[in-house]
Amino acid sequence: MKKIILSLLLVINGLMSSFAQSNTGVEMATGLRSSGKIYVVVAVLAVLFLGLAIYLITIDRKISRLEKQQKE
Amino acid sequence: MKNYWWKILAILLLLYSIIMGLLGHVPALPIVHETIRNVYFHVPMWFTMFTLYIISVVYSIKYLSSSNPQHDLVAVESVNVGIVFCVFGLVSGMLWANFTWGDPWPNDPKLNGSAIATLMYLAYLVLRNALEEEQKRARISAIYNVFAFPIMIVLMYILPKTTDSLHPGSGGNSGFGQFDLDGSMKAVLYPASLGWILLGTWLLTLRFRIRKLEYQNDIRVD
Amino acid sequence: MSLLKEVTSLVRKEILLEWRFKYAINGILLYVVSTVFVCYQAFKSVDPTTWNALFWIILLFASVNAINKSFVQESPSRQLYYYTVASARAVILSKISYNMLIMLLLSALAYLVYSIIFQNPLGDPGLYFVVVVLGSIGFAAVFTMVSGISAKAGNNSTLMAILSFPIVIPLLLVLIKVSKNAMDGLDRSISLDEILVLLAINVITVAISLVLFPYLWRD
């Protein structure tokens, strides 16, 4: 664990000293981004989340209806 | 519109965090690479859990001073939802740690602290099951909840700061703010956290309303 | 009657009761000695880290067993009597201070027996002693309140363990860390932060117990 912390500190140190030269050494998912495929992932996640949100809303409304029934 | 604007706000904020969290600019860092985007999803789990536990302790205090059974219901349901978020946080953290620190359970004070805090709230639920009588259950579990809460704060916020940790912002590690020079990460993290907290509160109110219906049903049957 | 007077008379009553029967205290002392001996037989020789951890685990279980009884042995009618003569704050304060006395005795004995049987060099015995004192006070404060809660919930000892262990773990972690520092004889300024955390935990638990116990007490 100490090794990891030490290396992390070293890396931070390196970054601090060379932040101006935009660190190109680190590999990021640029391929997925440039080919535009990342939008597919975003769309899928957004659809899934919206589905869940709508499901939540229907549950909410159902409970509201039950509460109304209870009052009567 | 008056009552549910915050639910819509929660959905919009989370949608924003999903889209911007994946497409937005993040600093390129070694070891974490693209997984730095997990910050937008893993960290809010803990914020939400903590908010729910605070709600729970506030309602436990309220119960002790008012003896209103509804306050007890809010307290227990927020613990229930809080435990769900705690599990989400632990599982997502383990997944992330496995790929960046090479170990799903590194011996890190934050991990151990949150595991122990989970035990604490599971103990709260066990205590509730051990008590039959309704008022007694509500009162004694509220007492335990208030008693355990400050110790949980020590566990999760004070201890990790004094010991070595892999997490940023503790044990001499630098926080994320250092890498996020243009504030682009903050612009996603804060709305995401607020969105998740609102969603957690929403779930809490749903569970509370179901419990209240059940409770009133029981009274009617009796 | 002032709170202090009530507390002192209640503590005196506890000590008198204990002195008359001697059942609980003797049992617990025997428990500590035999656990230490069993550990010695099982381990023979251990490295310092294990030595330290083992000591705190022995102390933890001994204190759970010692304090578990503090509310159980009172019959409901006697509790009703206290309720009429003393305030709830006085009751919990007297229980906590009595348990602290017991724990100090217990940990002193445990430490003595443990270090005689298991020989181990200590770098800074003074600091180690301070940590043991702080630790036993903390254990007493946490376990007294939890034993009150579990006594109200039907008195089973499993519940006591489930409720108290998550609460006591933070205390235990800090204790093990500081006492390890003391064993290695590190400079005292390093341990200052942890000692402050220990003190804070002790003060917080006693304060919350004082606030919460009246709610637990009225039935």
UniProtKB/TrEMBL annotation, chain A:
Secretion signal, residue range per the UniProt entry: 1-22
Membrane-crossing segments per the record: 38-58
Keywords, comma-separated and alphabetical: Membrane, Signal, Transmembrane, Transmembrane helix
Pfam hit, one: CcmD_alt
Name of this protein: CcmD family protein
Lineage: Bacteria, Pseudomonadati, Bacteroidota, Sphingobacteriia, Sphingobacteriales
Automatic annotation (TrEMBL), chain B:
Top-level division of the source organism's lineage: Bacteria
Annotated GO CC locations: plasma membrane
InterPro entries tied to this protein: Cyt_c_assembly, Cyt_c_biogenesis_CcmC, Cyt_c_biogenesis_CcsA/CcmC
Ranges for domain Cytochrome c assembly protein: 36-157
Mode of membrane association: Multi-pass membrane protein
Subcellular location(s) of the protein: Membrane
GO biological processes: cytochrome complex assembly
Keywords: Cytochrome c-type biogenesis, Membrane, Transmembrane, Transmembrane helix
Transmembrane spans: 44-61, 73-99, 111-130, 142-159, 188-206
GO molecular function, one term: heme transmembrane transporter activity
The keyword Transmembrane helix is annotated on this UniProt entry: yes
Family per record: Belongs to the CcmC/CycZ/HelC family.
Function as written in the Swiss-Prot or TrEMBL entry: Required for the export of heme to the periplasm for the biogenesis of c-type cytochromes.
Protein name, as recorded: Heme exporter protein C
Organism: Parapedobacter indicus
UniProtKB/TrEMBL annotation, chain C:
PANTHER family: CYTOCHROME C BIOGENESIS B-RELATED, HEME EXPORTER PROTEIN B
One term of GO molecular function: heme transmembrane transporter activity
Topology term for the membrane: Multi-pass membrane protein
GO cellular component, one term: plasma membrane
GO annotation, biological process: cytochrome c biosynthetic process; cytochrome complex assembly
Keyword line: Cytochrome c-type biogenesis, Membrane, Transmembrane, Transmembrane helix, Transport
Keyword Transmembrane attached: yes
Keyword DNA repair: no
InterPro entries (UniProt xref): Cyt_c_biogenesis_CcmB
Chief location: membrane
Name of protein: Heme exporter protein B
Compartments (UniProt record): Membrane
Organism, as annotated: Parapedobacter indicus
Pfam families in the cross-refs: CcmB
Spans traversing the lipid bilayer: 21-43, 49-68, 96-114, 126-146, 158-176, 196-217
Stated family: Belongs to the CcmB/CycW/HelB family.
